[in-house]
Amino acid sequence: MKKIVLLALLLVVIGVVLSVYLKNVSDQPPVNPNDLKPFTRTELQKYNGQDGSPAYIAVDGIIYDVTKCESWKNGNHKGYQAGTDLTEEFRLSPHRTSVLEKLSTVGKLVD
Predict the structure, then answer these.
(1) Which residues pair with 55 in a beta bridge?
(2) Other CB atoms within 10 Å distance of the CB of residue 75
(3) Which residues are bridge partners to 107 per DSSP?
(4) Measured between alpha carbons, how far is 28 from 8 in angstroms, rounded to an integer?
């Protein structure tokens, strides 16, 4: 009997956590690249997180703000530098989508 109660409690907790997560994901409006501020690669380089500047990265043509991410302290994260296009590096990342969904979009990369 205790096993059934524990299993039921576990299922309820999982359901609550999942519903909160899905609500947060669905509350984020989709990004329309046409509405984003255009940044050239030269402009993006200014946002490297150094000397108090914001830290931005580009992935698949979208520019994300990583300034407040603890893992991007001073614009550096595991050998990667803010102010650059990290599309290829993110393609190799196992947690790519989950990370990008949490970041604010600030622009689009243009040539």
Answers:
(1) 48
(2) 22
(3) 37, 63
(4) 31
**Residue whose tokens read 């990290």:** 86
- Smallest Cα–Cα separation from 47: which of 22, 65, 25? 65
Residues 15-60 pLDDT 10s? 655 555 555 544 556 667 678 899 999 999 999 999 999 999 999 9
Q: Per residue in 60-79, pLDDT tens?
A: 999 999 999 999 999 999 89
Judged by DSSP in three states, 49 sits in coil
Residue type, 47: Y
Would the CA dihedral through 75, 79, 84, 85 be positive or negative?
negative
Delimit the domains of the chain by residue range. Answer: 1-30, 31-109
Q: Could you tell me the CA-to-CA distances from 66 to 1, 6, 7, 12, 73 in Å, in that order?
A: 49, 40, 39, 34, 9
Q: What is the pTM of this model?
A: 0.71
Q: Which fold has domain 31-109?
A: Flavocytochrome B2; Chain A, domain 1 (3.10.120)
- 3-class secondary structure, 95: coil
